Amino acid sequence: MPQVTIHVQPRPYQAWIENGLLTRAGSVLGDLLTRASRVFVVTVPPVRKRWGSKLVSSLKGAGFDVQVVPMPDGEIAKRLATIETLAEKFARLGADRKATIIALGGGVVGDVAGLLASVYMRGVEFVQIPTTVLAQVDASIGGKTGVNLVAGKNLVGTFYHPRVVLIDPKVLKTLPDREFRAGLYEALKCGIIGNVELFLRFEQNRARILKRDPVELEWIIAQSVKLKAEVVSADEREGGLRRVLNLGHTIGHALEAETNYRRMLHGEAVAWGMIAANNIALSVGRTDSVTAGRIADAVLSLGRLPEVNVSPRKILARLQSDKKTQNGVVHFILPREIGKVEVVSDVPDSAVLDSVDELRRLSRGGWVWGKQRRICRKQPSSISAESSATSKVRTRLKYKEPLRPS
Ligand SMILES: NC(=O)c1ccc[n+]([C@@H]2O[C@H](COP(=O)([O-])OP(=O)(O)OC[C@H]3O[C@@H](n4cnc5c(N)ncnc54)[C@H](O)[C@@H]3O)[C@@H](O)[C@H]2O)c1
Ligand SMILES: [Zn+2]
Fold first, then answer.
1. Which of 164, 261, 349, 401 could be 397's S-S partner, Cβ–Cβ 3.0 to 4.6 Å?
2. How far is the CA of 106 from the centre of ligand 1 (A)?
3. Interior CA angle at 76 toward 72 and 80, to 5°?
4. Which positions of the chain have pLDDT values less than 50?
5. Which domains are present in the chain?
6. Which residue, among 273, 265, 263, has the nearest Cα to 295 in the 3D structure?
7. pTM of the predicted model, to two decimals?
8. 294 catalytic, yes or no?
9. Would you give the DSSP letter of residue 218?
10. Mean pLDDT of the chain
11. Is the CB of residue 75 below 6 angstroms from any atom belonging to ligand 1?
């Protein structure tokens, strides 16, 4: 089974990646945690319904005293009020300093349960069992926890590493299609940043990946985790190196904010951001057209993306206002060749404006679909294809621009 070590202070930990791992979670944790400890599984209703009982019976089978503590679903629940409500519940249930909190869910559950674990009784044991692609390849690795404020995303949080991360790619089979693909862009990002083999896998085995072939998923997730683990191990608290993980995020975050977090999932905004970074790299002479073409095709062939209907000037203005919060510099992560990126801080405004214009052109009239970048006939209204629950939650979001990347 692939096991990846994340080398951080004061204690390194491992991410285990294996199909079917959820049913073995009890025995794995039995070896790591003292069985006397009580286990509290924080999760959301859609995940509890599909995967909760599997985890609970595995834990009970290994002799753990288990309690499921549900929280509301969606980004809207990622706020301090949820931490307080959960903490009160924990106290009522008698959770003490020996308690272990397990996050079973996507990035929202991981961020909330992680923050809670870091402050409840001044810190209790924490385990991540991520259930979205995004959480498996990104959010569960690296120790960032957090909640949002009205003033911006992830403005209150801690660095708090879990004891272990248990990744079972099989749980992805119940993930809504759009959420699934949005997470894949973050995995593809890892290939572009520093893993040529991973990128090639996306080029060569795309159909199997999109069909959620468990063997394919296990492999690409393990490779993505490995890359993130290497970067985090080298730069635990986000100095310079960890910045490379923000490929596609500079413009991606601006697109999300400019569309009020309603039109695009995070991964979709990152997909467009990677195409923009690609165009910028080409226009400032940092990469060649063959590399840029391969990256664009790899991104666009993963599926439909929402239309980019924003003003390039407004995107530029957002980047410039972010600049104030980042010591006066906007850092772009630009691809150089497949598996190599560089941090560039002197990108001319004209290149940014052109790159956003190009996104508008590429996506005009509908969603972009397919390798040849032909435009899908469907009109933007087809965005309502996203699950009604998700869209309801997302349309209720009212954050101002993020002040720093998540
Ligand atoms: N801590 C970090 O380093 C980090 C990194 C990246 C993103 N994040 C955060 O992660 C969050 C986004 O995470 P996300 O994309 O996983 O969204 P999410 O947690 O909201 O999950 C998306 C949806 O999928 C559902 N779901 C989850 N797993 C499922 C499954 N197996 N089957 C069926 N439905 C399932 C959830 O209930 C939810 O409705 C953001 O808040 C972001 O800020 C954190
Ligand atoms: Zn991201």
1. 261
2. 3
3. 85
4. 368-406
5. 3-174 (3.40.50.1970), 177-205+239-395 (1.20.1090.10)
6. 273
7. 0.90
8. no
9. H
10. 88
11. yes
